[in-house]
Specification:
Distance between the termini: 86 Å
Shape: flat
Number of strands: 11
Number of helices: 1
Structural class: mainly beta
Radius of gyration: 49 Å
Largest sheet: 9 strands, parallel
Order of helices and strands: EEEEEEEEEHEE
Length: 172
């Protein structure tokens, strides 16, 4: 195998994973040789060989195991003929039954809208003043704004006298 592979691989023959391959799958075969990267469980009925550039991450069940110097392995190992025979075979999940959905129940009709009486709006009260025996309706008086006193002008600065410096003048 070469390239990128994800899923499940189960063959009756041998499997070889090339140097540049990146496999994320469960692998089962007779002789399994890994020179690329393999992530997932491995079942090798004869033997598993992880080459110098190979990397295996996952649990393995093998009859025999060979890991070359420089190879990488991370996982549990079950070794021997009994381990391979006890290896769980992937079981295909039964297809789910199709159960028809019942028709949705009709929604109940919303209750009839109850009309609320319109709110009563009362006119604002009228101020009545009594003068010379007759009642008159008077609008409220508008208050004129209070006058603010003007701010005094800032005082003029007085002239200061220039005081000569003592000593030698500084050179720049």
């Amino acid at each position: 195998m070469g390239g990128i592979l994800e899923g499940e691989v189960e063959v009756t023959g041998n499997i070889e994973i090339d140097d540049l391959a990146n496999v994320k799958a469960s692998v089962a075969g007779g002789d399994v040789s890994v020179n690329g990267h393999l992530t997932g469980p491995v079942v090798a009925r004869k033997r598993l060989i992880v080459g110098r550039s190979g990397s295996v991450i996952g649990d393995v069940r093998v009859a025999r195991l060979a890991i070359a110097d420089g190879a990488s392995f991370s996982g549990k190992v079950s070794m021997g003929t009994g381990a391979v025979e006890a290896a769980p075979r992937p079981v295909q999940a039964p297809e789910p039954e199709v159960v028809p959905m019942p028709a949705p129940a009709p929604e109940p009709a919303p209750p009839a809208a109850i009309e609320k009486p319109a709110p009563i709006v009362a006119p604002p009260p009228v101020v009545v003043a009594q003068t010379d025996g007759k009642a008159k309706a008077m609008p409220p008086k508008a208050m004129p704004p209070k006058p603010t006193p003007p701010k005094p002008a800032p005082a003029k600065p007085t002239q200061s006298k220039v005081v000569p410096q003592k000593g030698k003048p500084k050179r720049r």
